[in-house]
Backbone:
């Protein structure tokens, strides 16, 4: 083990991923080396199809790499029992992925239930988590997902991901499907939340504003490669052409009369 | 007799048939669910199997039910006559909607929900039980609902293989042209189908995932309370099929055959031998069942055995036909032919009595010149058999204005009401006199002799010695006139077969 290993929660080592296809395989990620440090919020920014979601799914072994390996807590994902691995990693997806036939309380208490927590402990935890994401448990616990707004559903998704207190949180474009105003407020809350909880998180987004608000480190992805990886401050000053394009779009937005 | 009076008289039997019907449908659906849902789940996992399995299930549904029953009769274990065969066929019919809807339901679960379930660390089994099945259950119940309604209909055909159910009334009603029987059978079946549809519709609503989950304790108890008796009923009926000490008697699907079978049944019962009746079997089923050991005995006619089973061209000498049938059955099928019962049931060519008197017709030859203006109505059997229509029209050089193929039992009414002008009926048919129909004599002796006999398996004769005694007592015991009277008691006076036979056996001291 090298020195970084102590502080690294996730390490990508020469990882490539391609989908087998007739003829030549469709390569999504040609080669990826990346370390996620404990306590940081790493944001992967990129257009759709750049491989950022694939990168995320490689961590909790929804996908396995075609070559190379991903170490989680120093152990390759392929050596983990996938069920155990996934129960240690919180996962938030774009449409929320809430179970429509479960109440909010049952959705949030899902992983604690799978881990065999007793009923009282799970109930307490569910109430705590709902409060944490700003939803009144008395009002929401017994409702069904379809009775909630998009923003509320997404909060429940976050509460569910945090419920079993996992050391690592993966968020796949969690605010992507929301209206801009809801999105902005959710982002601010989430920024406070990650700071308070000191969670390690990897978040994927195509929204540069969200990336800048949430990231402690920002990775820019293009065609399966990381073309920039540093703090948000350095991102704003970067010479990388794609990074500059993102920053310019941000400036345009802020001009009066520019698109909102 | 009004329909209301009929119901008052026959409600115990109707109730029994409804119960048989429900037990059959319910058991078949239960088995189909136990096979179909897991199969459907497997198909969502193995994509390559989906085409072939769904295709096969599809083909199953296109096989006409009577044909499917026919295929099943000679098969060991799953075949035979009675409840078991009907169950197998019903299960095969019910599989398609259940498998298809299971597949559709599970594949219809939103991908993001399934992905979330896997990502939360659910095992494959947990994903299936907690996410996929609960979300698909509404669609699956729809499939079960469709299968159940279909099964209620198909079960009416099951009466043809002796499985009972409301089809017994429908077939009997058709044969005897008895609207009360038809209505009682058909209305009850329709009500059953509607009730099943309604109840399963309620169930479907219950399973809408975002309202309420599962059943309360009381509801679970209620479901068990309904299922248990049905289960016992099924167990009991299967038990009945497998018991070995009995004599299994079959009959063809017309009144005379049922009467003859009932005569042997009651005579055996008087001698303390228990009897299992599989009466009113359609088409070739009695023969197949006898040969494959599902039946011990059934009544037949030498001419039918000679031409339809042994495939010989018709011969006119009764003695020769009887001897040859006896010899070949013993060699080919290990089946014994009883002494002739004393009457013939040959094809009777009938015209309306008024017409015969007006044109002064006595023989078929005399009628031949008129046939170019006549419409003929013949049963399916007469149209297809070797000693039927083709040779008949050739022998007498007949050319009809129109030949209609219809159900034999309907031809009598068709003739008397003037829908057709000539029919080929059974000579022992009771309605010949009551409907004022005139029989034209077969002056060229075209129709082979159809002496009534019993066919009995050799091993059954060895196992139950009383069988031999009963059959020899029945030799030459029934005259044509007597048979016509018995037929009329059932067909014309709408009396119960068992009762008519009981009186006759008693009167004859058999």
Residues:
């Amino acid at each position: 083990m090298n020195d970084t290993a102590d502080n690294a929660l996730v390490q990508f080592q020469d990882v490539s991923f391609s989908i087998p296809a007739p003829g030549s395989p469709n390569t999504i990620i040609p080669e990826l080396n990346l370390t996620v440090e404990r306590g940081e919020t790493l944001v992967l920014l990129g257009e759709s199809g750049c491989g950022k979601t694939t990168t995320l799914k490689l961590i909790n072994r929804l996908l396995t790499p075609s070559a190379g390996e991903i170490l989680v807590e120093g152990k390759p994902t392929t050596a983990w029992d996938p069920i155990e691995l996934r129960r240690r990693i919180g996962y938030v997806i774009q449409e929320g992925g809430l179970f429509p036939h479960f109440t909010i309380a049952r959705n949030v208490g899902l992983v604690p239930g799978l881990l065999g927590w007793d009923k009282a402990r799970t109930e307490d935890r569910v109430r705590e988590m709902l409060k944490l994401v700003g939803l009144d448990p008395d009002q929401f616990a017994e409702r069904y997902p379809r009775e909630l707004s998009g923003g509320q559903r997404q909060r429940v998704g976050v509460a569910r991901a945090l419920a079993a207190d996992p050391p690592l949180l993966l968020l796949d474009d969690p605010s992507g499907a929301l209206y801009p105003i809801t999105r902005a407020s959710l982002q601010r809350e989430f920024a406070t939340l990650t700071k308070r909880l000191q969670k390690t998180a990897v978040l994927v987004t195509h929204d540069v504003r969200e990336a800048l608000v949430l990231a402690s480190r920002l990775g820019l992805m293009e065609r399966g490669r990381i073309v920039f990886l540093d703090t948000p401050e350095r991102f704003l000053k970067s010479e990388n052409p794609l990074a500059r394009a993102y920053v310019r779009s941000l400036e345009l937005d802020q001009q009066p009369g520019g698109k909102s | 007799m009004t329909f209301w009076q009929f119901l008052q008289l026959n409600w115990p039997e109707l109730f029994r048939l409804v119960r048989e019907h429900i037990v059959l449908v319910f058991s078949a659906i239960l088995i189909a669910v136990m096979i179909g849902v897991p199969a459907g789940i497997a198909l969502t996992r193995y994509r390559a199997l989906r085409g072939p399995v769904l295709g096969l299930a599809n083909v199953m549904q296109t096989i006409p039910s009577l044909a499917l029953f026919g295929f099943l009769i000679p098969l060991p274990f799953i075949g035979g006559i009675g409840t078991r065969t009907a169950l197998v066929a019903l299960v095969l019919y019910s599989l398609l909607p259940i498998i298809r809807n299971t597949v559709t339901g599970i594949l219809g679960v939103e991908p993001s929900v399934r992905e979330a379930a896997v990502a939360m660390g659910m095992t494959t089994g947990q994903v299936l039980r907690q996410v996929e099945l609960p979300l698909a259950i509404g669609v699956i119940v729809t499939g079960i609902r469709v299968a159940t309604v279909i099964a209620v209909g198909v079960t009416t055909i099951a009466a043809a293989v002796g499985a009972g159910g409301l089809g017994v009334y429908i077939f009997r009603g058709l044969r005897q042209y008895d609207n009360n029987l038809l209505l009682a059978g058909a209305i009850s079946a329709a009500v059953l189908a509607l009730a099943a549809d309604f109840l399963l519709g309620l169930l479907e609503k219950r399973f809408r995932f975002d309202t309420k989950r599962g059943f309360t304790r009381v509801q679970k108890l209620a479901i068990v309370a309904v299922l248990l008796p049905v289960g016992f009923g099924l167990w009991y009926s299967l038990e009945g099929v497998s018991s070995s000490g009995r004599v299994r008697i079959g009959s063809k699907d017309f009144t005379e055959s049922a009467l003859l079978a009932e005569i042997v049944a009651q005579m055996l019962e008087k001698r303390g031998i228990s009897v299992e009746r599989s009466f009113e079997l359609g088409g070739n089923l009695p023969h197949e069942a006898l040969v494959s050991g599902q039946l011990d005995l059934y009544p037949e006619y030498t001419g039918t055995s000679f031409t339809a089973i042994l495939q010989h061209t018709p011969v006119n000498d009764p003695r020769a036909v009887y001897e040859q049938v006896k010899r070949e059955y013993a060699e080919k099928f290990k089946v014994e032919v009883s002494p002739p019962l004393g009457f013939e049931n040959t094809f009777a060519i009938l015209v309306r009595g008024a017409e015969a008197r007006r044109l002064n017709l006595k023989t078929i030859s005399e009628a031949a010149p008129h046939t170019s203006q006549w419409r003929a109505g013949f049963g399916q059997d007469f149209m297809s058999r070797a000693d039927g229509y083709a040779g008949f029209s050739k022998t007498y050089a007949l050319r009809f204005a129109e030949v209609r193929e219809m159900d034999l039992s309907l031809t009598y009414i068709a003739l008397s009401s003037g829908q057709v002008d000539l029919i080929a009926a059974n000579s022992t048919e009771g309605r010949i006199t009551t409907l004022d129909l005139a029989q034209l004599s077969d002056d060229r002796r075209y129709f082979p002799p159809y002496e009534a006999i019993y066919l009995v398996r050799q091993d059954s004769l060895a196992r139950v010695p009383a069988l031999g005694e009963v059959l020899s007592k029945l030799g030459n015991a029934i005259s044509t006139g007597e048979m016509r009277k018995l037929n009329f008691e059932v067909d014309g006076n709408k009396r119960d077969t068992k009762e008519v036979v009981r009186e006759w056996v008693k009167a004859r001291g058999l």
Remarks:
- The interface with chain B takes residues 60, 62, 83-89, 91, 93-101, 110-111, 114, 144, 146, 160 of chain A (CB under 8 Å).
- Confidence is low (pLDDT under 50) at residues 1-5 of chain A.
- The first helix of chain A runs from residue 4 to 7.
- The domain at 1-88+176-191+201-231 of chain A is CATH 3.40.50.300 (Rossmann fold).
